[in-house]
TrEMBL record:
Keywords: Membrane. It comes from the Eukaryota. Residues 1-103 form the VASt domain. GO terms for molecular function: sterol binding; sterol transfer activity. Its main location: membrane. One of its GO terms (cellular component) is endoplasmic reticulum membrane. It is found in: Membrane. This is VASt domain-containing protein. InterPro entries: Cholesterol_transport, VASt. It comes from Podila minutissima.
């Protein structure tokens, strides 16, 4: 059985929308050293919206874009989706951990004193990290 290995991944990320109610992050990843890697890229979008004073709704989308038709497109898509799914699970885990931490609570308290709408710890931390 072949073991999973690691390889270089080149990713560009862009915050395409940012407001009091939404943060939309678009990213595109290329892995040229995998088989057929020069023929496809993985496009991800993460949409975070304010759901209530204590909740942030997070939607994650993934698409594999092919620059050229290849025989193994099904396997490439399956591998890309598996990798993106793992990333999303870890992202959600870390955001939930932050929201439950004393640091997250302090960020929410600080933001609430700014006389703006109530925000969650997750939103405050993301705003700080994205800019």
């Amino acid at each position: 059985m072949l073991a999973k290995t690691s390889t270089a991944c080149f990713e560009t990320q862009q915050v395409t929308e940012y407001s009091d109610f939404i943060i939309l992050v678009h990213s595109e990843s290329r892995t040229p050293n995998v088989p057929y890697g020069e023929h496809f890229s993985t496009v991800n979008q993460i949409c975070m919206t304010w759901d209530s004073p204590s909740n942030t709704k997070i939607q994650c989308f993934t698409e594999v874009k092919f620059k050229k038709s290849i025989m193994w497109s099904g396997k490439v898509e399956a591998g890309s989706l598996e990798g993106s799914g793992g990333f999303y699970k870890e992202l959600i885990r870390q955001l939930a951990e932050l929201a439950d931490s004393p640091e997250g609570a302090a960020l929410v308290e600080k933001a609430s004193k700014l006389n703006t709408k109530a925000v969650t710890a997750t939103e405050v931390k993301l705003q700080r990290q994205l800019y």
